[in-house]
Every structure is written in C-alpha cells, then in structure tokens.
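Cross-posted from the bioinformatics board.
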Amino acid sequence: MKELKFGKPMEIENESMHIIRRELEEMGVELPEEHAFVVHRTIHTTADFDYAKNLVFTPHAARRGMEALAAGTTIVTDTNMARSGINAKAMERLGVEARCFMAEERVARRAAQLGTTRAVVSMDLGAEEFPGGIYAIGNAPTALLRMEELIREGRLHPALIVAVPVGFVNVVESKERILALAEERDIPAIAAMGRKGGSTVAAAICNALLYRAGGR
Amino acid sequence: MKELKFGKPMEIENESMHIIRRELEEMGVELPEEHAFVVHRTIHTTADFDYAKNLVFTPHAARRGMEALAAGTTIVTDTNMARSGINAKAMERLGVEARCFMAEERVARRAAQLGTTRAVVSMDLGAEEFPGGIYAIGNAPTALLRMEELIREGRLHPALIVAVPVGFVNVVESKERILALAEERDIPAIAAMGRKGGSTVAAAICNALLYRAGGR
C-alpha cells in the first residue's frame, strides 16, 4: 500500500498549483498573466478545469479588486457559506470584513412583508450599508438581478462584482446581464459563464485576490 | 430583453431538479432509485454532471445515513464552510447538530504541539467526542487518512462517512482507501471518486439525506 504523507498544507498547495499549471499547459490553455492566478485558485478549489474557459474578467478586474481589498473594502456575500470560505486571517491582515445578511432575522421579516426573496432583501441591505462594497455572489441569481436594478437606480456602486452563482434556472442569464452592465459602466467584474459556480468558487476568487493583495 | 422572474426558491429548485432528471435521461444515465436523490442534489449544487459517475455508495449508505440522522446523530465536518452549508432548519427539525473543530483554539495549539495538521487533530477530537458520528469531509484528505487510522484503532465507528475532499495531492488515494475500509467493515459511505468534491458537495449530500429523512 502506497504510503501517503501528512504534508504541510502550504507544501500541498504549492504541489497542487504546480500540477494545475502543468495540466493547463498540456491542454494548450494560455491565460492572461494578469488573471491567471485567479483561475488557478478556482481550479484548485474545484478540481474542475472548465473554469479555465468559464471565468471571464472585465479589464483589469483582478488588479482593481486587489486595490479595493488593500483599501479595506467590505466584502458582501449572498451566503454564509461563501463568507465562511473567505480566509479570515487574510482579511484581518488587510483590515477587510465579510458580511452576509441572508440569515438575519430582519431579512426574513422584510422578505415576507414585501413578498420577495431573502436574496433580494440582502442586496437591498447591502446597497444601504455598503454601496461601494465588493459583492461576491455564489448562489442566488436573484441577488445578481437585484444588483442590476440597484446599480441602474444609482443606489449601488460595487468596487468589484464576483458573479458566480451556480444552477439551472436564471443563472446563465443573470451572469450575462450583470457582466454586460459591468462592461457598460466600467465596473470591475469576474464572472463564471454558464451554469457552474458556487459558494466555494466565490470564496476562492476572493481569497486569490486577498492573498495577492498582501493578505498572506 | 428576456424578462427573468424572481421565482420562489422552492419553485426554482423543483424546476432545476426537473431539468437535471431530464438531462440525465437524455445522457442515458440510469441511477439506482435508492441513491438517485443524493446524486440529483449534488448536481443541483455543482451544475456538474460528472457526479452521476463519480459518486459511489456502499450498500444502503443513503438509507443508513438517513436512519442515523433521524436518530439525531451529530454531523462532524472538516470545514466550517461545509458545516454552514448544512441546512440549519432541517437539522433542528431532526434534532441533529453539526460540529467542526478546525477553527477552535485548542486545535491549533494541539496541532503545533504534535507537529501535525489541524485536520488530523480535528478528527482526533471528533473520535473523542462523537465516536459514532456522521463524518462529512469535503476538504482535507488528511482528515480521511486520520479517520482510517482511528477506525483501525477502534476509536472511531462512524454512522456514515461522506468522503468528498477535492484536490490534486493525496485526494484520489484517500477516498479510495476510506471506501475500501468502509466496505471491509460494513460502514455506510458515500464518496466522490477522483479529484472532485468540496465543502458544497459535502453539505449537499448531508442536506439530501436530511430532507429525505424528514427534515423538510
């Protein structure tokens, strides 16, 4: 039986990243230097090389996201799962906080009153409390649809949009729409086109930017 | 521009599940009735149809997992991310708790003292406090390797093992090994063979079982 080593997490991560770069090279995939580290970390998190094709970036989205993080911009997520996947030590080092409104009592109450979803109300609260925040959406396409409305109404000016909901209904369209708006308004955005994405992907993208911005 | 509806979450889930079943049928995939609902929910969470092939089950693993949940068995996870992805209301309804030791101060301290990883120490604490728990591992192959040792030493008797770490180093082997041991010892296990998996997959499998066991 092959002896498996209990390696140090950092060594294992380096070895994993080496494998990912090598396999991408073998596939003939060439990524823009500026964004490659985000793609690598997303593949590291998912073991899914589809993200080499799926992830799209508006001009200098990674650099502008890192600048926002270095300035201590709050990250608003659409799930507590995404929030808890963002590296707490890296955030602390940069003075960044991550917030998710979904599970708050007032969100359930307001959603029931308005006959809408908690994801929509969460984005409304985000726009009220962090109109210039980084928005990392890994689950709810309705969160992206609501963000689109809030941006058009001038109530939300995100420093970065991470648009990576996963799923089968409204998901593809919601990502295409927010990306088109981001391009039109010159808002930095990183999106996973197609059906794939998720809370782990949202967190991985935030972590890639946090680490590169000096969080580790 | 196509009008996208802000549908009710449950309606959207039902529509998504319908799409998943239809596309699996179109692909000619036939899943055993007993385990299909777990596969469906995993695909729902990842939009990745690879799980129709990757997910393997020891005999009656889903039924036995549901029985353990219906009896209020604690779920131990290897990440707080997986823990926070498990539906809190569904757990409450069945009297189930989810625990993750990873971020506890004593874990970091003990890992430093012993020169090992926090994942290993987390499993040691799991074995001490919940020797008959459900173990849902979505991240750390070392957690599975340590579980293997603890089971062989007679210190851990899991009610169910959800073995779905993701990654490039030790991951494939750790899942193959725990599955072989589970088969040998007749421990119910659900594993994602290959590199893929993750915290969202671990949570999705637990949620599938919780919902079917009466949590929703």
